[in-house]
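Exercise 7.
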Amino acid sequence: MKAAQDQQALLHDEFKQKLKNERKWVRFYQVCIFILFFFLWETASRHEWIDPLIFSSPSKVWELLLVKIQDGSLFNHLLFTVTETIVGFLLGTLLGTLFAAILWWSPILSKILDPYLVILNAMPKVALGPILIVALGPGLTSIIAMGTIISVIITTIVIYTAFRGTDPNYIKVMQTFEANRWQIFRDAVLPSSFPSIISTLKVNVGLSWVGVIVGEFLVSSRGLGYMIIYGFQVFNFSLVLLSLLLIAVFATIMYQLVALLEKKLIKDDRE
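Solution. The predicted structure, written as tokens, is:
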């Protein structure tokens, strides 16, 4: 018996070590691709395999980054865009979750609104930008509204579908113990939907950035979206690429924060 347990423990340790090694190799290849990408970009630009005016180079983008940091202008643009994106992301997620809960709470209302949700989801929300600017004014409010609207409908649909997908046996058991609708939602429906909510958060990270950048394209006089438009207008494509790289970096940070939240929620849920 003890020999079998030792053998099982040994196999478990080998499996854990294998996973650990696999993660190291994955990370190694990811770093290699990252370095190779910038090396090829720099080399192609220096040897004019690509047009250095249009595609710039990592060294020029880096020099521009240092200039922008020294004159302090970068932090102003960065803070503006990141704030808008976080607010739009939170509002889109919270409102979408709230609407999904209301639809779950009222099956009649969900049947009435179902076709309208499909129509709104199919509509390109970016096209609402000019209307929002006229309605809310050319400022922070209209940009945050863009970041919110672009994610709220899809959030509502996905999370409502997750709510409806709750195992009916859980609900029947709680109804047997005379749980009311709020208790069923709090103790069964919501916890079982955490994986879908987290997946929606990950999608909303990208959508919020898209909404805010498009809003800044249309109306803003600062922010990373404004830097892209300004760089295009003056043919400073190093500025455009610097803005795109910063968007990629901060979108990745937001995504990783959501991934950390996912680990915590799933862990807590299992506990």
